[in-house]
Amino acid sequence: MKNLLRASFGALFILTLTACVSSSPTPVETPRNVVFLLGDGMGFAHVKAYRMYADDPSTELVDPLPVDALQVGSVSTDSIVMDCDSTALNCTRDPHGFTDSASSATAYATGKDTVVGRLSMSPSGETMTTILEGACMQGKSTGLVATSELTHASPAAFGSHVADREQAADIANQYFDNHWEEKPMVDVLLGGGLEHMQRLDRDLVSEFRQAGYEIALNRSELLSMQGEQLLGLFAPNGMPYAWDRDSETPSLAEMTQVALKSLDQNPQGFFLMIEGSEIDWAGHDKSIIGVISEMEDFISAVQVVLDFARQNRDTLVIITADHETGGMSLGRDNIYRWDPRPMNGVKATPAAMTAKYLAGEESLSAFIAENVPFELNNAEVTILDATPRDETAVRDAIIDLFNKRTLTGWSSTGHTGVDVPLYVFGPGSERFHGVMQNETIGQVLWEVFIPTEHPD
Amino acid sequence: MKNLLRASFGALFILTLTACVSSSPTPVETPRNVVFLLGDGMGFAHVKAYRMYADDPSTELVDPLPVDALQVGSVSTDSIVMDCDSTALNCTRDPHGFTDSASSATAYATGKDTVVGRLSMSPSGETMTTILEGACMQGKSTGLVATSELTHASPAAFGSHVADREQAADIANQYFDNHWEEKPMVDVLLGGGLEHMQRLDRDLVSEFRQAGYEIALNRSELLSMQGEQLLGLFAPNGMPYAWDRDSETPSLAEMTQVALKSLDQNPQGFFLMIEGSEIDWAGHDKSIIGVISEMEDFISAVQVVLDFARQNRDTLVIITADHETGGMSLGRDNIYRWDPRPMNGVKATPAAMTAKYLAGEESLSAFIAENVPFELNNAEVTILDATPRDETAVRDAIIDLFNKRTLTGWSSTGHTGVDVPLYVFGPGSERFHGVMQNETIGQVLWEVFIPTEHPD
């Protein structure tokens, strides 16, 4: 009986262990890698519009986007907004103002709020360490990938410290000059902004090359990159919208692919920030075509990262936005539908269409009729042909045509205050849930990724 | 050595068991009670606006709403929309149409999609069992609480089956006539809609009273209710907006309190559906004042339910919406702020203000100046005093004044296609996460709440 009991105990013990292993949650591991993806200006309407656009109409249910199953909450992107008089000397805090990309990206990068327009620097001017720098100081590799110029606010908040986001030359200089153990703190820089890096006063492209970075100035050069330190610059400023790029301008997904391959060579792991920068610009233009072009580019990059993270389970992926742009809505004027089909096959944004139209001789309605998958009605023809042959007027007329045809609504050409979506995947993701402030995301990211190194 | 090994085994076994108990997740329990709270027309902008309105400005951070920590994802509220010709006989499915409250509430109630306008009945006319009915057949108590008339689409989808949501008399009759074990399937009915229950052709109030229901027709009667079967009707149709109610009209929180106390007397548990019905109506009116009035009423009821669920941990709470109404946004016209302060102290909606103004002799600007916490500017005075002395015109002028002062934007007077927030609390909540379809919520709710009884 005693022996039997012991034998039972042993068996029970093994059973218990088995049950325990299978039912206990994976312990909170420190992720080796973090990829932070920012859809600049991406609100819930932008995501839903792209889901409806990308849907395969031959299947009964709407096909989910790769982010959909990963939503865990949303982000309230408030920051410190100062309400100043005309001298800009007398300022009071405005509790109801909206953030910009600089302040919001600073919150994600440092875990701390700052005033609008400032990059990883406190309201009183102290440098605030970023998660990219924290990763670098741990011996990890680091990267910034964006479709805007690399000196634009969101990537710049992770890799530089300036009082004013407009200091593009200072930001570019800091990418090279801010060193850790005798090398620049950012290993991989891919995006637009050649003219801020190669200037009359300083040629950072040469300096990076001499420091051992591989340089790419077009898609072919990008795709053949092999090293651990890369600088790729694919436009003088922001890269063209995805639908307007030529064959020598890479996609965000291609830049992402190259960045991951490069950074993953470091056995210590990496931090990579990736931005779909121009979702925001399309929102400022109230252009649904621009939004879909840039959402397609961004979500393709998200897919590349998720494929990597599913192969490399020590990778934490965070996907969110810095604020919503445009007050975008699906549905307008009491019509209960939103129709993506007027954009089917249209692989050029209104800006590119306008340039092509102005280079030709046709009437605007004749030009548009050749470039859209629907038949223009009389009212549309009248409006288009009454449009002055002027770049802004033509572009706005084309934007408006697509907004009305798709039934997209907008409340502003600026940022709005609505919360933005939060998606996470990988080890540490259980720390992100519910409605979070953007600076809380930054704080938790530090705690999860670099638990010993949080700067207070 | 052998004994030592055995002793160690024993100790290890106990340690393992302890570690296992403390680290294994709580097993998925079947909740005894479910409370399903629907903010009709409540999108992310509605929630954010109320969070900013309700915030205590003396604290540095924005105070979270009781729902904020409970967000787990969002809901895509697509349903079956038929695009019909003028005869309504030739219909094709419209994959890009938006849902209405009937079809969306049906999805939540039954786990199945149906066509717009239909209540818990399939496209071909078959009755589809609702979660309320499933709970009733399990011996649980059931309740419907709404600020609209109780025969309105959302509550009606849980307690009746009709081809057209406009069949208010049929819906009211079914609340009494649809029996299980010789009693009506809905035990607690609290809301508006007296005129649909007490009609020339049938007096359901008397019938319910004779069947043993306690009846309340005002707030005092509601608050003294004690029984397990209650009918409370506090307006001929929809109840007044919360800010326009008199002292004898209860709040949604008060109705919720009474419903919970009543239903909780059943040891088998209960299913309760609660609707903040008129968030949607305020959205149709593009009225930010109406939205804040109804969000305050709804969130107060949510707080009552969460207080109950924290005391009764076998209660699953789901809080969501059926669709967004209005294409509402915080921020308009390129101004980077949204200001709730013009609504401070304004405890009447534009409809009530209009009635009061039309009963008096003052100019509209003089009347408004006395009823708002800000000083009207010259442009506002001019617009108000040029408004015809007509109910709709005056109401719209007041709505517009508050939209502009608060910087609220709208894209439609109807429903939009943007996803709506999803909040959950309690046992089974781990089954809800990410972006879900509304019918998937209904299916998972069945699986969690009544695992043995899912009708297929």
Write the layout of secondary structure elements.
The structure is a homodimer of 456-residue chains.
Chain A (H helix, E strand, L loop, with lengths): L1 H22 L9 E7 L4 H11 L16 E6 L5 E3 L6 E3 L7 H10 L20 H7 L3 E9 L3 H7 L8 H10 L1 E2 L2 E2 L3 E5 L1 H4 L6 H7 L3 E3 L2 H5 L6 E4 L18 H12 L6 E7 L2 H6 L3 H24 L3 E6 L3 E2 L3 E2 L19 H9 L5 H8 L6 H8 L5 H16 L1 E2 L5 E2 L3 E6 L8 E4 H12 L7
Parallel strand pairs in A: 1-11, 1-12, 2-18, 5-8, 5-11, 8-10, 9-10
Antiparallel strand pairs in A: 2-17, 3-4, 6-7, 12-17, 13-16, 14-15
Helix pairs in contact in A: 2-12, 3-5, 3-17, 10-12, 13-16
Could you describe the 3D structure shown?
The structure is a homodimer. Chain A has helices at about 1-25, 45-55, 100-110, 130-135, 155-160, 170-175, 195, 205-210, 220-225, 250-265, 280-285, 290-310, 350-360, 365-370, 380-385, 390-405, 440-450; strands at about 35-40, 70-75, 80-85, 90-95, 140-150, 180, 185, 190, 215, 230-235, 270-275, 315-320, 325, 330, 410, 415, 420-425, 435. Mean pLDDT of chain A is about 90; it is low at about 1-25. In chain A, strand 9 (about 215), helix 9 (about 220-225) and strand 10 (about 230-235) form a beta-alpha-beta unit. Chain A has about 450 residues and is of the alpha/beta class. Helices cover about 40% and strands about 15% of the residues of chain A. The longest helix of chain A is centred in the middle third of the chain and has 24 residues, at about 290-310. Chain A has a ten-stranded mixed β-sheet, with helices on both faces. In chain A, strands 3-4 form a two-stranded antiparallel ribbon. In chain A, strands 6-7 form a two-stranded antiparallel sheet. Chain A has 17 helices and 18 strands. In chain A, helix 3 runs parallel beside helix 5 (about 155-160).
